[in-house]
Design a protein that fits this description.
Keywords: Hydrolase. The two termini are 20 Å apart. The protein is α/β, with parallel strands linked by helices. The protein has a single domain, classed as Nucleoside Triphosphate Pyrophosphohydrolase, CATH 3.90.79.
């Protein structure tokens, strides 16, 4: 087994956050745009590529906000994710084109059904993963500090 690196975009505009919407046998859920780093690729290169694939346009990458580990055997989906260990790097990002055009990209993720702007104040009403990160997004929107390293959270 190996540890996988992943880069994620935190895109906030007008008190809303841009997330990808997915659907599986358990219903709808929301994830931050981004994904796995390929061999020979920087985290920034991975994030730009993943944003093009998942939201249909590149992101301008800013500062590193959070580092989250996900050790699957320790969380609610342990039966499916027991062999997963991933380190996720969350970056503050802006859309290069300034706005999201509200259309599914040409190469969406498996189970991806939409890209949505969710009001940050309502983030706890949605099934956003990682769930613990919702607290930190609220703090970010209020200009409050959070630690960079969040540990093994879900």
């Amino acid at each position: 087994m190996h540890v996988r690196n992943s880069a994620k975009a935190v895109i906030i505009m007008d008190e809303k956050i841009l997330l990808i919407k997915k659907h599986d046998e358990e219903g709808n859920y929301y994830l931050f745009p981004g994904g796995g780093q390929d061999h020979g690729e920087t985290l920034h290169e991975a994030l730009v590529r993943e944003c093009i694939e998942e939201i249909g346009q590149p992101a301008e990458i800013g500062e590193l906000l959070y580092i989250r580990e996900y050790i699957g055997k320790n969380h609610e989906f342990s039966s499916k994710h027991s062999d997963i260990h991933q380190v996720e790097y969350y970056f503050a990002c802006k859309l290069v084109d300034g706005v999201y055009l509200n259309q599914l990209p040409a190469n969406p993720d498996e189970n991806q059904i939409d890209v949505v702007w969710l009001p940050i104040d309502d983030i706890f009403h949605y099934n956003v993963y990682p769930k613990e990160l919702r607290h930190h997004i609220i703090k970010l929107a209020r200009n409050e500090k959070s630690p960079v390293y969040l540990g093994d959270i879900n």
